[in-house]
Amino acid sequence: MSFDRLAPHYRWMECVLAGNKLQRCRTAFLSRIKNARNVLLLGEGNGRFLAEAGRLLVSAHITCVDSSARMLQLAQRRLSAHSQSRVAVSFVQADALAWEPPKQSYDVIVTHFFLDCFRPAQLAQLFATLSHAARPGAIWLVADFQIPHSSLCRWRAQLIHRVMYAFFCVFTNLPARQLTDPDPFLQAHGYELRERLVTDWELLRSDVWQRGPP
To answer: Which end of the chain has fewer CB atoms within 10 angstroms, the N or the C?
Structure first.
């Protein structure tokens, strides 16, 4: 899987196809982690969430992991362009499935529009690895697509998902062919859903999960 080919075009494609909907989804609960000290940001892409986080998380250290070198370059440039950002960031080019994070290091994990890239077996592997990297009481922010329950919204979402997966499978060699619900994986590793915001005809969701007591 590589997003290098799409990196130069990703921003305008997102703008044309979704406007600012995905960014609002990413940043919906950013204020919930304003006191974070160590943040793991996986699959950040071109850095739109990172730039916003840099304005708020002035006392945090963010580890930004992405397999695409070109996406990481764009994220670095975007962060540098926000001169008011004072957050400390380490950029790591790595496959999340092969990368080994330090144990119990992060009080926040962020996976925005990233978990939908993987097949169930890969998600199981990823969650097992990240579970060891999270501290007790860690917060996990998730923004992603979903399949609604109501019929009209469900039909619309299924059509959008089919088109998206067909496109990304061709241009990025995406492992997944359909969406896998991450909720059971989070619950299996001791995370509880604290808050969820659903938008765009129930197509998009933003979640706050936390391990153990709040």
So the answer is: C
